[in-house]
Amino acid sequence: MKAKNRKEKQSIGRRIWRWTKRIFLILFLAQLLYIVVLKWIYPPVTLTQLSSWISGDGLKRDYVSGKNISPNLKLAVIASEDQIFPDHSGFDWKNIKKAMEYNQKKPNRIRGASTISQQVAKNVFLWQGRDWLRKGLEIYFTKMIEWIWGKQRILDVYLNVIETGKGIYGAEAASQTYFGKPAKALSRREAAMIAACLPNPKVFTVKPPHRQVLQRSAWVMGQMSFLEKDEDVQRVISEP
């Protein structure tokens, strides 16, 4: 009797293990297919956008292709957020090390070091937060989009999903809301102001212009003048 019960338990355990493997395989293939599909289409909705809508902040967005976004804005976000974006493979290890050292010294003032690729991985596939599970998944998705999408597509998606104000997402919605014009018509100064708000768009408002946005946008414009001479940067911000 005991031997029979033992065999039944082993059989149940094997069935559970088989179904667990099947579920993980299905989930893996599903997310891989989703990553591949997003190389050509934009995400229907992200968890961050959904959270914004549920919380009452609203959801204003208008996806546009890269050719309908001003090169000024592409250059501005690289200057502001990730100046070695064309060169790294998803991570700025030098900046990550500096951020870790800073956060150890000042744990109450967390400093980020996410690249544009990491921000896209977080905003498109994951939730907001700093837990280790999300960070681990962020590394995985960052490597996958670097491998499957390439730099131009990553920048394109970034400029369509990034939060640019309370309930405002993407370049087109920001441009229409703040300047009453399409994203492809943004001037250098306007692009720099949008890029300057990105570290904390709900606090660093573009309209009315927050003091931090005015100060940082001047710095961003200076960095744009320096970076626009870089051939790798030009290759990323230019449409094929």
UniProtKB/TrEMBL annotation:
<comment type="similarity">
    <text>Belongs to the glycosyltransferase 51 family.</text>
</comment>
<keyword id="KW-0961">Cell wall biogenesis/degradation</keyword>
<dbReference type="GO" id="GO:0071555">
    <property type="term" value="P:cell wall organization"/>
</dbReference>
<dbReference type="Pfam" id="PF00912">
    <property type="entry name" value="Transgly"/>
</dbReference>
<protein>
    <recommendedName>
        <fullName>Biosynthetic peptidoglycan transglycosylase</fullName>
        <ecNumber>2.4.99.28</ecNumber>
    </recommendedName>
</protein>
<dbReference type="GO" id="GO:0008955">
    <property type="term" value="F:peptidoglycan glycosyltransferase activity"/>
</dbReference>
<dbReference type="GO" id="GO:0016763">
    <property type="term" value="F:pentosyltransferase activity"/>
</dbReference>
<dbReference type="GO" id="GO:0009274">
    <property type="term" value="C:peptidoglycan-based cell wall"/>
</dbReference>
<keyword id="KW-0997">Cell inner membrane</keyword>
<keyword id="KW-0472">Membrane</keyword>
<keyword id="KW-0573">Peptidoglycan synthesis</keyword>
<dbReference type="GO" id="GO:0009252">
    <property type="term" value="P:peptidoglycan biosynthetic process"/>
</dbReference>
<comment type="pathway">
    <text>Cell wall biogenesis; peptidoglycan biosynthesis.</text>
</comment>
<keyword id="KW-1003">Cell membrane</keyword>
<feature type="domain" description="Glycosyl transferase family 51">
    <location>
        <begin position="57"/>
        <end position="224"/>
    </location>
</feature>
<comment type="function">
    <text>Peptidoglycan polymerase that catalyzes glycan chain elongation from lipid-linked precursors.</text>
</comment>
<keyword id="KW-0812">Transmembrane</keyword>
<dbReference type="InterPro" id="IPR023346">
    <property type="entry name" value="Lysozyme-like_dom_sf"/>
</dbReference>
<keyword id="KW-1133">Transmembrane helix</keyword>
<dbReference type="InterPro" id="IPR011812">
    <property type="entry name" value="Pep_trsgly"/>
</dbReference>
<dbReference type="InterPro" id="IPR001264">
    <property type="entry name" value="Glyco_trans_51"/>
</dbReference>
<dbReference type="GO" id="GO:0005886">
    <property type="term" value="C:plasma membrane"/>
</dbReference>
<dbReference type="GO" id="GO:0008360">
    <property type="term" value="P:regulation of cell shape"/>
</dbReference>
<feature type="transmembrane region" description="Helical">
    <location>
        <begin position="23"/>
        <end position="42"/>
    </location>
</feature>
<keyword id="KW-0133">Cell shape</keyword>
<dbReference type="InterPro" id="IPR036950">
    <property type="entry name" value="PBP_transglycosylase"/>
</dbReference>
<keyword id="KW-0808">Transferase</keyword>
<keyword id="KW-0328">Glycosyltransferase</keyword>
